[in-house]
Structures are given as C-alpha cells and as structure tokens.
Design goal:
The complex is a heterodimer. By secondary structure, chain A is α+β, with helices and mostly antiparallel strands. Chain A contains four helices and three strands. Chain B has two domains: 71 residues, no CATH class; 65 residues. Chain B is mainly α.
C-alpha cells in the first residue's frame, strides 16, 4: 500500500514548476502535462493544486504571466520564469539535492 | 494613453481578477476534458475523470482570487499611501493647534474612509464568487458548458 503513495512532498511542486518553466514559457495545463511526462506517472500532481502555487510564485516574483494564444488557438495565460525565479530554482535545486543525499545516507546506515 | 488608462481601470476592478481566474481554470478543464475524449472516453466519463483529476474547482478558484487580490501592486501602494496620510494627519493633529490641527483630523478621516472603501470593494467579489459564475446552470458542470 505504501508503494502506491505518489503525493508530492510539501514545497516540491514549486521546484518542479520552476524547473519546467526554465525551458520555455507555458500555460498551466502544459506545465502539468510536462511534469507528468517527465515523472513517468511516478508522482501525482492534482491539477487544481498547480494554480494556487503558480499565483503564489508570481506574487513572490519568481514567475510572471501574460495572456497569449494556445496551440489550439484558445486564449490562455502563459507563465515565464523571471531572473529571481532562476535564482530560486538554483537554490531550491541545491536544497533538494542536499536533503535527498541526507535521507539516502540515513536509509543506507540503518 | 487611453488604452493605458483603460488597462489601469481594468486592473483596479476586482471583478477582472475573478474573470481572469475563471477563464484560466476553464481553459485547463477544457483541455483536460478533450484529452480524455481523445483517449476514447464518453463525454460523461471524460467529465467525471476531469473533475477527479482537477480537484475542488471552487476551492482552487477562491484560493487563486485571494492570492491575486493581496498581491495587486497598485492596491498595496494605495494601502501604504493611506497609512502614510493617516500618520501625517496624526502628527499634524498632535503637534499643532486650531485650524492646522483640523487639517490633520481631515487627513486621518480621508485615510480611514479610503481604507474602509478598499475593504468594502474587496468584499464585493467574494459575495459574487461562487457557483454562480462557475456553475451558472445547475444542470451543467463547467465542463459541459
């Protein structure tokens, strides 16, 4: 049963969004799709949870948004990483790697 | 110039935030539904799967509107300015007598009224937010509209 857990750890969603937007600007649906594809369905992102995270990140100045036209000619809001967002990505990535190494070490020693 | 002014007026309107959030979420829901339809699901099944994968639409919308409202730079600037006006008014009232002191009182009143006005304006869209805009027709989910 424990193997079925796919929920993201607190704060991880922001890191995934930052990483996804580092390549190109995208709308919310595109971001979720890219995360699912990259994670090969190993983690579950509830689509709705993406938006409060995006809005908070925009509030902090890590991303900005503007309305544009989607691939199917619909009006959609596109998000883009800012310079502050790039710095945040580097910092969160380093933090994630540090935590990940620490947890792996603990698991190997017991 | 006119366009810039219109944009500013639009930006100040709390209803614009509501509409923008709704439009963005609806775009996502429609894309999700068409993804399920392309996989061969029936419209009903696609709607159910979409709702399940998206989560609580109303809750998400409310969260987004609240975040957007508090982060509006112009409103933050306005609130800070009102505090400044109130402080100047207070200093004038305390440190002067007679007519000048009355100006201080007036500034305080202007600041308090302005803050109240902003507070009331922020309450309006909350009472409108609802199911009304997302589920206008009870027989239809936002996905089937």
């Amino acid at each position: 049963m424990a193997n079925d857990r796919k929920d993201l750890m607190q704060g991880t969603l922001e890191l995934l969004i930052l990483k996804t937007l580092a390549r190109e600007s995208m709308h919310g649906y595109g971001i979720v799709q890219r995360i699912h594809e990259a994670a090969e369905d190993l983690v579950k992102v509830e689509d709705g949870s993406l938006y409060p995270a995006l809005y908070r990140m925009e509030e902090r100045g890590w991303i900005n948004s503007e309305w544009g036209v989607s691939e199917n000619n619909r009006r959609a809001k596109f998000y883009k990483l800012t310079k502050a967002g790039q710095k945040q990505l580097a910092s969160e990535r380093a933090n994630w790697e540090r935590i990940s190494r620490a947890v792996t070490k603990i698991l190997l020693t017991t | 110039m006119k366009t810039e002014l219109l944009r500013l007026v639009k930006h100040l309107d709390p209803r614009t935030i509501d509409r923008d959030v709704e439009e963005e979420l609806h775009f996502h829901l429609e894309m999700l539904k068409s993804e399920h339809l392309q996989k061969g699901l029936s419209p009903t099944e696609a709607t159910v799967r979409t709702s399940k994968r998206f989560g609580d639409l109303k809750k998400v919308k409310n969260q987004c509107v609240q975040i957007r409202k508090r982060s509006r730079p112009f409103q933050r600037f306005l609130k800070a300015s009102l505090i400044l006006v109130a402080l100047i008014g207070l200093i004038i009232t305390v440190s002067t007598d007679g007519r000048v002191s009355r100006i201080g009182n007036m500034l305080i009143m202007v600041a308090v009224s302005g803050r109240l006005l902003l507070y009331v304006r922020n309450l309006i869209p909350q009472s409108q937010q609802s199911t009304l805009s997302l589920f206008r027709d009870n027989s239809q989910t936002p996905l089937s509209r």
